[in-house]
UniProtKB/TrEMBL annotation:
<dbReference type="InterPro" id="IPR035647">
    <property type="entry name" value="EFG_III/V"/>
</dbReference>
<keyword id="KW-0496">Mitochondrion</keyword>
<dbReference type="InterPro" id="IPR009000">
    <property type="entry name" value="Transl_B-barrel_sf"/>
</dbReference>
<dbReference type="InterPro" id="IPR027417">
    <property type="entry name" value="P-loop_NTPase"/>
</dbReference>
<dbReference type="Pfam" id="PF03144">
    <property type="entry name" value="GTP_EFTU_D2"/>
</dbReference>
<dbReference type="GO" id="GO:0097177">
    <property type="term" value="F:mitochondrial ribosome binding"/>
</dbReference>
<comment type="function">
    <text>Promotes mitochondrial protein synthesis. May act as a fidelity factor of the translation reaction, by catalyzing a one-codon backward translocation of tRNAs on improperly translocated ribosomes. Binds to mitochondrial ribosomes in a GTP-dependent manner.</text>
</comment>
<dbReference type="InterPro" id="IPR013842">
    <property type="entry name" value="LepA_CTD"/>
</dbReference>
<dbReference type="InterPro" id="IPR035654">
    <property type="entry name" value="LepA_IV"/>
</dbReference>
<protein>
    <submittedName>
        <fullName>GTP-binding protein lepa</fullName>
    </submittedName>
</protein>
<keyword id="KW-0378">Hydrolase</keyword>
<keyword id="KW-0342">GTP-binding</keyword>
<dbReference type="Pfam" id="PF06421">
    <property type="entry name" value="LepA_C"/>
</dbReference>
<dbReference type="InterPro" id="IPR004161">
    <property type="entry name" value="EFTu-like_2"/>
</dbReference>
<keyword id="KW-0999">Mitochondrion inner membrane</keyword>
<dbReference type="InterPro" id="IPR038363">
    <property type="entry name" value="LepA_C_sf"/>
</dbReference>
<feature type="domain" description="Tr-type G">
    <location>
        <begin position="1"/>
        <end position="173"/>
    </location>
</feature>
Amino acid sequence: MLTYCRPWKVHFGRSRTGTVAKITGANTQMLDKLKVERERGITVKAQTVSMLHQHNDKTFLLNLIDTPGHVDFAWEVSRSLAACQGALLLIDATQGVQAQTISVGMLALERNLTIIPVLNKIDLPAADPDRMAAQIESTFGIGRDEILMASAKTGEGVDEILRAIVDRIPPPTGDPEAELKALLFDSSYDRYRGVISLVSIQSGRIRKGDKIFLHHTQKKYDAVDIGVLHPEETSTDTLQAGQVGYLACNMKNSNEAQIGDTLFRVGESNRPPLDGFQPTKAMVFAGIFPIDSNDFPKLEESIKRLTLTDRSVAVQRESSTALGQGCRLGFLGTLHMDVFRQRLEDEYDQQILITNPTVPFKIVYRNGKETVISNPNDFPDPADFSLRVQEVQEPMVKATIILPHEYLGGMMDLCSNHRGEAIEFVYLDASGDAQRVLLTARLPLAEIVTDFFDKLKKTTSGFASFDYEDVGYQKSDMVKISFLLNNKPIDSLAIIVHRSNSVHVGRIWAKKLREVVPKQLFEVAIQAAIGKTILARETITAMRKDVTAGLYGGHYERKMKVLEKQKAGKKLMKRIGNIDLPQEAFYDILRSNRS
């Protein structure tokens, strides 16, 4: 019989419950369903699966949620934890506690979830379980007798994990006989059935054919199909309190499936809704435009479909004089942005151009008004900047970096070079040669979204782990750099940087533009400017047409007359001519800036 269900999150590689066949080379990444996940070896989308487990002559229904670990996908983790009573904190026995481990562990502790720490990969020669267990004990205050040892490759310790889940994690407390109340915590889109919602039943039960409604939209639906993920969709007649499953109700508009909404049955008393989730706050913004401007309707529809499975993306329309119609999207980080771009290309066959990532800035005006801008073109005009604007504030983050102690000096220099300051550092383990340091630093978010992470890996030979959290805004001397071709600004290339770094950035971008802008019949001036102040200039010489080629013989004065006429024509063309700047040039400049 089904005694109760216990939602938790886990990722290990060998089936011990009969839910799937023995793991082989063909299905080792069963829960990594996206192409980008298989190619990059990371988890991007939280995946839910239900399975039956025999323990002490009883059958238990376990609902698992496999979650990402990277900071850019922290919202996937927070949504998953809201539907759970416990969590497996999986730690590599060769690498120990990482910055992401601390972040996810603290999220679980804040929700008062039961945590089961597991040291994985103990079969590897480089594994050091005793030292890693000491790190867990000092970081989270969890006793060594509570830490489990396992190997997903060999299957060692997996049975102990399953027993610990049943014995340690408390079951859900919802009453199946009460009125229906369910939490909508995820969704996807099926071209034939519309929106498929994932729900966690908090109380009561739902059956096929029931009439239901969502609290936020107050719209009513019929439960056409319900079931569990086992690991694929398996239809059932009923979902009851404690279970997690899917719901298809012919919902066609993706905006109606609000993540965190509460689901009720029509006719029952309208009780208070569930708490839902903390709304996401975009940290990185970028414009996305189609290579062919005629493809914008298809791109916009693809973005709508994709954001149904990733509600942490903020979307609004944007128009550019150079690139045409597009969308400005807000992401949780640069990896999140890059994964979204790849999913658009892989899953929807979109050919897109993505602009340079920016962060939100807060503008405080002298009249007391405050606005947050995410587009550099919305930055106040330098002409009356000092008269209207009191200050500009940029977002700051508290970075957590874990690294071997021999790289500590180089990492502190790196933080200093990116306008950051080290707050403190502590040693995670004070014994042995491989001492590891937990460094906490305060950094501007604008510095992180450039090349900071690549430099971090290079400085520490790839041994450092990095995580960060938002800590609000701080006053800063930020300026907007505009790029001009023959005194005409290119709106899609405007950027906001710190004044101390403006000349350096302006020179680099001007040189890149000189390499990608095609030659014209007249001289082209490329300038980087702050208002009317020119920071850097590059010149593209004119293409030369040999106008004297057809003059055979004749006087010298005749040739000079033709050359002077050509010179006057080029001068006029430079004044009134338009520069042909193809989108391939934008693609090259933006791609080179991100590489």
